[in-house]
């Protein structure tokens, strides 16, 4: 039975419902359409992952950012599919224009987001929430364009060789899903580590526009009017030129945006396999500041007060064997080695690049006292959770958790009941665990959730805080370097298995620069006054930060 052909709508090309006039055999043409589906699907997933990764890096809380990007994008894909029904009569020209727009929007999305973040003063001022709004806008636009691809591609593949609808859908979705798999694997294992977020998004846009132009202007060129071919050719050349120009200028853009974020004295900027490390200052008498993935890990003017408060209360007691989780900068190890009787310090940090910088950078090595030249210090590049799972029981007298703030999704497992249970097992009789738990004044519920989680793991706790008193120290997800908005204190929890540990300083340690017993006692009372009742323990399956 021969299917009756519907009449062409007014203004549509004469071949709208007829077979396409291809320069190749139908089998080859069908293969080329499916190959284009494969490439476009890979590019589309890379755009999605780029938005998720950059939003997590700029805003924090990767679970929320992934949920926002993916849900908005999937919603927009449905709207785009419906809207594309009106373009089916111009399937070839419509698909060509669609891919040019998608390549431009998707390819430039990462650069635009980072530019807004860098030059609008983070989240403050008139642009408060600007990157979040732009994130949703890009997710919506890219989702609309990706969703519109499917009806047009279905029309094109049917015009190459008509087949039953079920078979056409199966072929189209098979190519689409395999392409998504390739794009999803290429992003974390190839594009991101070798090209970075900005260059990889621009390259993806270039691949996208070339694939779309090759399919339409090559395979379906006879379906287009001369005017349509010229317009599409000009549009694709312009998009490719914009992406190529941005790729040429991306290094200058990164340097300028980095200066906008960190200031003019960026001295070291390196992307390791784990994170971006930026070191500012450290010359002309200025203390160094260390940023990890855009978050200020320590400010040189305040780091000693922070690290003395973190380490020294835990060292009052047996301390021959010390484990430092995190702390690849060597500053916590410096404080531990200030106590006589320390025989071994194990530093467990996932980023060997940070440890290498702490060894070799003159300013940072001078700040940490050259601890990595001390034979008592041993370094392991490992995940803290996995390290504790494999550690022998009753190994350490002191465990120092110098870790990123629990508000960062990647750190949540390191503030869980299961993690503290592993740390408790690693403690020798009479051993102590100390945890950096974020600022007390501005995030009291997070702080007391950490304390409740330690108690749930069978530890007796002594919470305390230390006044920051200075400019710019911001640990964890609060990225700002604006003094007015920076947290004004740091919260810690000292814990032990047998009994509540006393908050006392080791009288045998070298004299401290900033911390006194009177201040420590007073600040512990101040922290107790902020207690949040009803805080519940955080677990791996039910994180509460």
TrEMBL record:
Pathway stated in the Swiss-Prot or TrEMBL entry: Amine and polyamine biosynthesis; spermidine biosynthesis; spermidine from putrescine: step 1/1
Residue numbers binding spermidine: 307, 329
Major subcellular site: membrane
Known role: Catalyzes the irreversible transfer of a propylamine group from the amino donor S-adenosylmethioninamine (decarboxy-AdoMet) to putrescine (1,4-diaminobutane) to yield spermidine.
Membrane topology value: Multi-pass membrane protein
Family of this protein: Belongs to the spermidine/spermine synthase family.
Domain of life: Bacteria
GO molecular function: spermidine synthase activity; thermospermine synthase activity
This protein's UniProt keywords: Cell membrane, Membrane, Polyamine biosynthesis, Spermidine biosynthesis, Transferase, Transmembrane, Transmembrane helix
SUPFAM superfamilies in the record: MFS general substrate transporter, S-adenosyl-L-methionine-dependent methyltransferases
Lineage: Bacteria, Bacillati, Actinomycetota, Actinomycetes, Kitasatosporales
Pfam families: Spermine_synth
Catalytic residues (positions): 402
Protein EC: 2.5.1.16
Annotated compartments: Cell membrane
Transmembrane segments: 31-59, 65-84, 96-121, 133-153, 174-195, 201-220, 232-250
Gene Ontology biological process terms in this record: spermidine biosynthetic process
Protein name per its UniProtKB record: Polyamine aminopropyltransferase
Catalytic activity: S-adenosyl 3-(methylsulfanyl)propylamine + putrescine = S-methyl-5'-thioadenosine + spermidine + H(+)
This protein's encoding gene: speE2
GO cellular component: plasma membrane
